[in-house]
Structures are given as C-alpha cells and as structure tokens.
Design a protein that fits this description.
about 35% helix; about 290 residues; Rossmann fold; 10 helices; 9-stranded mixed β-sheet; alpha/beta; single chain; globular
Length: about 290
C-alpha cells in the first residue's frame, strides 16, 4: 500500500506547478500541509458543494443520492460530509459501524455502493456522541479530511455542507482551491427560500460559481399509484432561481420510500432506481455532467 506524501516526480504537471515552492513567511510544516492538500486535490476534476441556508430541506439525502446517481452514470465519485455536529451520511449509507483504514500518515475513504465516503461520523465511538467544538477545531478536522484522506482519481468530489454560511462551508471552500462549484438545495416554501437566498449571496461574495438550484420535496409521489400530486407547494425553487439569475436544476418530489431508505441505510436511488423520484435525481445528475463537461 502506498505511503504519503507521494512524490511529485512523475506528475505531468510538475513543470507548471508552483506548489513545490514555499511561500514567503511559510513554515516548513505549513508548506508540507499545502503540498499534501494539493497532491490530494490535483487528481479530482470537479468539486461540488451541496449547500442550503436552511436546515430540514433534505440537503444530506440530496447529496447522497446525487453522488450515487453520478456513480450510476459511470463516474468516479467521492462524498465528503463536513457537517461536524450532525453527520447523517453514515446512517444513510448503512455504514455507522464502519471505521476507515489506512496508516499513521493517511486514511482511506469508506467504499459504499461504489462511492468513496468520509465523515466524522465514522470516527465517533458512539453515534450519539456530541461534538462540542468551536470554529478552529472544526476547521482543523475539515483540513485533515482533505489533507489526510487518500481520495485517488475522482471525476467528482461532492461535499455535504451543514445548513448556513458559517465555518464549515467557508473552511472547505478555502481548502479546495480550483474547480469548485455549488449546488443549492431548497424546498418550495417561502420560509425556506428566504434563507436559501443567503447561500446564493454567500457564493457570489466569495466568487463561487453556482451550478444551480434543486427544489426538493416538490410534490408528493403516491405510494399506491406512483402519481405525483402537488399537495405541498411546488415551483418556489424555480422562481427563486429565476429571480436570483442562477440555473434551475430540477425538482425532486417527496416519496415516503425516501424516508425509509434513509433510515434503513440503503440509499434511495439504489433501492428504488425505477421510481419517479429517482428519475428526477438521475436527470439532475446528467445535467450536472453536461454543465461540468465530465
């Protein structure tokens, strides 16, 4: 098994790479960390932050199923969960008891349904343990997830961010460097849209391109006949995308089986790949592939 840090001698980008040179005032430790981070990231073509200014919009389930839909399209995909206080990705993937392997120098991501995954949930002794950290500690562990995890060659690294525009999305954005874009998740209700607009403003203030808006919980899939009915509001996310002048990626209707899939640990697009809701996720994944050119 290969040990890190890997030498850059065989890299085709070596002649144009400036990372090997220390910055003015940079300590040897800071330079080493920057080299390691760059080595992890240089084999990742696209990084997608899944964000929302509002909690409870199904952002994590959207990130998990979207990442798996990209895998189903033949892409090499990683999923990084940076929700430090509420990591739900391990539960959704049925991997709460799995622990990462590796050496003292690096960790290997967990393989779930062909998806490479890392979350602080894999490192907790008990899933009910509370993480009581301030910003600097959260930033440090997010840096470790980028620096010390051997992601390998990826077409996409999907990052599940916690709600809001605070430490976690800001830290990961500063660490990931180039080729980062955002996907914004909302529900159709106005109470969600007000906060979700803040995420788009966050992206613009930090020059982070927005791939588009996903309207989650848009309509309801009848478990008996499969028809989609608008018993909840629908269209609010699309109207917001138009108002904020960002692309609209599509709607994902509510399906009771989505809740069951999240609780059972078998991801929805894996267990119900032929359903209307899974088809919506798959269309969005293909749309992202078309936008990113990979």
């Amino acid at each position: 098994m290969e040990k890190t840090p890997k030498t850059c001698e065989s890299c085709s980008k070596k002649s144009s790479c400036t990372v090997q040179d220390a910055k003015p005032g940079e300590s040897p430790e800071q330079h080493r960390d920057r080299l390691l981070i760059e080595r992890r990231l240089c084999s990742i073509k696209n990084k997608i932050l899944v964000m929302s200014g509002k909690g409870g919009v199904g952002k994590s389930s959207t990130a998990v199923n979207l990442a798996l839909a990209l895998v189903q399209e033949g892409k090499a995909v990683g999923l990084l969960d940076v929700d430090i206080h509420g990591p739900s990705v391990p539960k959704m993937l049925g991997a709460e008891s799995v622990r990462p392997k590796g050496t003292e120098e690096y960790m290997l991501p967990i393989d779930c349904h062909g998806l490479k995954v890392m979350s602080i949930g894999f490192l907790l002794p008990k899933q009910t343990d509370a993480i009581i950290w301030r910003g600097p500690m959260k930033t440090k562990v997010i840096q470790q997830f980028v620096r010390d995890v051997e992601w390998g060659d990826l077409d996409y690294l999907v990052v599940d961010c916690p709600p809001g525009t605070g430490d976690e999305p800001l830290s990961i954005l500063q660490l990931l460097g180039k080729n980062i874009r955002a996907v914004i998740v909302t529900t159709p209700q106005e109470v969600a849209l007000i906060d979700v607009k803040k995420s788009i403003t966050f992206c613009r203030q930090l020059d982070l391109p927005v791939l588009g808006v996903i309207e989650n919980m848009s309509g309801f899939v009848c478990p008996h006949c499969g028809e989609v009915a608008d018993i909840f509001k629908s269209g609010g996310g699309e109207r917001m995308a138009t108002e904020m002048e960002v692309p609209f990626l599509g709607r994902i209707p509510v399906d009771p089986a989505m809740v069951e899939a999240g609780d059972s640990g078998v991801p929805y697009v894996v267990a119900h790949g032929e359903s209307p809701t899974a088809a919506s996720v798959q269309r969005i994944a293909r749309g992202l592939i078309g936008q990113t050119g990979n």
